[in-house]
Each structure stands twice: as C-alpha cells, then as structure tokens.
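@channel anyone free to eyeball this complex?
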Amino acid sequence: MTCREVTDSLADLLAGELPRARHLQLKHHLLACTSCAAYRRSYADTVKLEQEAFSDPEETDALPESLVRAILCARRLAIPPAGVP
Amino acid sequence: MNEATTPAPPRSSEQGERALLDRLRQGDEAAFEQLVRQEGGRLLAVARRFLHQEEDARDAVQEAFFSAFRAIGRFEEGSRLSTWLHRIVINASLMRLRTRQRKGEESIEDLLPRFQQDGHQVNHPTLAWEGSAEMLLERRQTRALVRVSINRLPDAYRTVLLLRDIEELSTEETAQLLGVSENAVKIRVHRARQALRTLLEPHFRRDAS
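replying in thread with the prediction:
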C-alpha cells in the first residue's frame, strides 16, 4: 500500500467502513511510515476540531426580537387565521 | 448583533411537543410565536454557518419558518419538530447560497497533498501536530481559527463539510439535498477535510510555535 492509497482511505477508516484486509494493510503501512501516521492523526484531529468549532453555547443566542416580529407578521399576512376569508 | 433579545424558553418535552403541534395545526397564533422563540436561535446559528452575510442568514430563517408554517399540516407524526425545522433551514440556506457568487475562494487543488508517480508524497514528510485536538481546543483562539479556515474553503466543499460533519446529515441525505451522487459527497467531504487540515497545519504543526 502506498502513501497515496493510505491518504485516500482515511475517510473510510474514520467511518469504520474499511474492509478488514485493507485495514490490516493500512495498519502495517502506518507502523512503518511516520509521515503517514502523523497525517492520519492530524486528519482525525481536523474532523474533531471542526465538530467542536461550532459547539460554543454562546453561539446559539435567542432570535433578535425584530426578526421574531417579522416572521410572525409575515405569517399573519400570508396565512390568515381559520375562518377569515 | 447588539439588538435586544429575549431569552429562549426551555425546549419542550415530547408530550409538550405533541401539544404544541396540535395548537399549530389549529392555527393558534401563540403556538407559532412559541415555536419561533423556542427554535429560532438554534436555526439562526445553523443558517449563519452556511451563509456569509448576517442578513442572508436572517432571511433564510424567515423563509424556513414560512415554509414550515405552510407545511405544518403535512408534518409526519413520530418525527421531531426540531429535526424537521433543522432540515428546512438547511434547505433554505442552501437555496440562498446558490444565488450568491463568492469571490476570492481558495483553490482546492492547492490544498490537497501531492504524490509522486510511485505514490509517495511530493512534499516534505508530514510533521505531527503539537497536541491532540482536545489539547488544541483548550486554546481560546482555536475554535475561531477553525471556523475562519472552514470559511476559506470553496463553497462546494465547505457546504458538504458542514452538512456531513457539523449538521450530521447522512451521505444519502446530503447527496439528495445537493443533487449529486453519494460517491461525489464522499469524495468532496474527504477533500474538504484534507484541505482544512492543510489550512490548519501551519498553526498546529510541532515546529509552528
């Protein structure tokens, strides 16, 4: 297995979708190639970092009051209450 | 962003959600307001991830609620309102994104690893990062750096990355939303992660500090 093949297999490895024989080949390569081993770790860390990048609870604040009003007003104008012609 | 806001009420339980759904179907004005206040902040956060302009994100949320109000009669029992709204705001954000042309995107090819004919990397060997993701996240600026780096990706790749890794949609759902094959989604998400890794590397590589 070449370095290119290792790199191409990382998404499947992370998803646990790599066939067993391919997984073994990849593990052997990673034991011998420090560069690919470092790439695999940093690839996995990249995914963890992106997943955590938006996890800040302060990011999810309440909707601005003006937007709440605009949404409800648009609904009233477009969809009149039941019974109103 | 300095506009006064009211705190969002706590998320409803399953029982509360069923009662809310009944009221929405009856056209209860207070129920619509409750839904907007309860779910709106979270939906705006989703729209902001896809859209670069705050105005576009707010418009996408407004469009999403409007679509939801019109379709509330077709909402399937057994689904979660929050999940349903999440999908609707993603769709509204993607539709708005398609109307916006971006300038100054990075070329994805420049951010991917290169290999020689024999399959070995062209560049110098990859160096380990100076800490695990958990350790890097302890730095105050890491989250902001990652968000800025994601925004530097071309939209075709950034969108797939957000849908799969952040919004946690399946490959199948992502393919349907974008009108591409599942294989195309898999290739794009892998390339997007590789490109993001390249953008982060100078900041986290062991010799960086």
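from a first look: Chain A has a mean pLDDT of 88.
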